[in-house]
Amino acid sequence: MNVWIFNHYAISPDLPGGTRHYDMAKELIKRGYNVTIFASSFHYSIYRETRLLPTEKWKIEDIDGVKFVWIKTPSYQQNDWRRIWNMVAFMLRVWQLGRKLPEVIDEIEKPEVIIGSSVHLLAVLAAYQVAKYHKAKFIMEVRDLWPQTLIDMGALKENSLITKILRTLECFLYQRAERIITLLPWAHEYILHCGVARKKIAWIPNGVDLSRFAYVDQDVKRRYLNEFKILYLGAHGQANALDILLEAAKIIQSKGYQDILFVFIGDGPEKPRLIETARKLQLNNVKFENPVKKVEVPRVIQKADIGVFVLHDLPIYKYGISLNKLFDYLAGGKPLILVGNPINNVVKETQCGIAVPSKDPKVLAEAIINLYRMSPEERQIMGRRGRAYVEKYHSIPVLADKLEKVLQEVVQK
């Protein structure tokens, strides 16, 4: 089967970020599928061109058997109108390229199935239009519930014209998709309001390529040899709510725990402000570092003692979460601290760490101190529980089984 995936923000493992579609594609290729991923060559979090020369508008690259079609889109440095123009440009260019490519490039065959993946709906709209052109099956993948996430984050007003347009567009796409893949376990309750049959919706969450975590390197040099490291790995944006970590770091520093270190690895529009906040708070137990390639994530996690991720207290999380960093931490066998209370609270379910409420840095600081005081053996037991969970439910072969079932069902209709 020849499958195309339209994901504006898809990346390969030599870049920072989530590799969901590369990992899935690589597994499907082992099973005899041909997979082509259409993505922007401008990276969404490090804000630079990663693949194309100034004179190139697009190019095809084979990465471990996975074909990427990199498409040039306008640059931006923050979440303003330039990022919106970047989205519009991707929609227009992938629509144009997707129609003509099989006619001009022998190595790109006409698709039998096209998966249009959000975050934004314009990429999904382009996938629908190109699928119609090629008479291919159209699958919609929902990685973020737009526009509801934007409303809950305060970026859009419920009754604004843009919100009404996005709600109309999302229902249009839901209704025309042969199947809908959602990453969130309870997103079907949201999607059903568009009059979609429940049987059209399949839950395929994020996961992890466990082969990247297969090694046990006893010789890894610990960069912070004498410190207890709290690792945050991922984007530094408004949605990541990272101020509470700095507030907890201030409390822990004031209590005299000099060997507890907070390490922030990643990038995003909030990073300069967070660095300045740490400076104003005179925190000497916080370090900010550059983002790392996906292939380097296991080594980075191995050097940490605890992984942490933070959620705002938002209504949208009643539909669940499926964060890449969560499964990376679990695969690395590290105890977790989850700040927030989503409906699918893996930390509570598996007892692989401690879950604390949002907006309470004192409770967060206490949780960190409690883990710090535990014996290494107790923390290892927590980490093993998380690792066992991700092996059973979130390894790439397990998730590819679910995706393959969806693909087979739509082509047989």
CATH architectural label of the largest domain: 3-Layer(aba) Sandwich
Residue share in β-strands: 15-25%
CATH superfamily of the largest domain: Glycogen Phosphorylase B
Distance between the termini: 15 Å
Largest sheet: 8 strands, mixed
Under CATH, the topology of the largest domain can be stated as Rossmann fold
Helix and strand sequence: EHEEEHEHEHHEHEEHEHEHEHEHEHHH
Q: What does the average pLDDT come to?
A: 93
Number of strands: 14
Question: What is the helix content?
Answer: 25-40%
Total individual domains: 2
Q: Nearest-angstrom radius of gyration?
A: 21 Å
Offer a concise description of the structure.
Helices cover 39% and strands 17% of the residues.
Task: Write up what this structure looks like.
This protein is an alpha/beta fold. It folds into two domains: 2-207 and 395-411, Rossmann fold (3-Layer(aba) Sandwich), CATH 3.40.50; 211-393, Glycogen Phosphorylase B (Rossmann fold). 39% of the residues lie in helices and 17% in strands. It has helices at residues 20-30, 81-104, 121-134, 148-153, 161-176, 188-191, 243-254, 271-280, 297-302, 324-331, 346-350, 361-373, 376-393, 396-411, and strands spanning 2-6, 34-40, 58-63, 66-71, 113-117, 137-142, 179-182, 201-203, 228-233, 260-265, 286-289, 306-310, 336-339, 353-356. It has an eight-stranded mixed β-sheet with strand order 3-4-2-1-5-6-7-8, sandwiched between helices. Strands 11-10-9-12-13-14 form a six-stranded parallel β-sheet, sandwiched between helices. The longest helix is centred in the N-terminal third of the chain and has 24 residues, at 81-104. The protein is globular, with a radius of gyration of 21 Å. Residues 216-224 have low confidence and may be disordered.
